[in-house]
Specification:
about 55 residues, 4 helices, globular, mainly alpha
Length: about 55
C-alpha cells in the first residue's frame, strides 16, 4: 500500500469537503504523520478552528 497516494486522496477529499466533513476526516483518519496533519490544517478554514478543537477534545 502506498501511503503517499493514500494521503493525496485523503487530502483531495479534505479540500473538497464541507467543514463538518473536514472535521470528521481530520478526527477519524489514523496513520498520518504530524506533517501530513499539518498539511490538512493548511486547508481548514480558520474561522472554524474552534469547532475542530471541540471535536478533538
Amino acid at each position: 500500500m502506498n501511503t503517499a497516494v493514500d494521503f493525496e486522496e485523503i487530502k483531495k477529499e479534505f479540500i473538497e469537503a464541507d467543514v463538518d466533513t473536514k472535521i470528521d476526516i481530520y478526527t477519524t483518519t489514523s496513520g498520518l504523520s504530524v506533517e501530513q496533519f499539518k498539511e490538512l490544517l493548511r486547508h481548514f478554514p480558520l474561522q472554524h478552528l474552534e469547532k475542530l478543537e471541540k471535536a478533538m477534545a
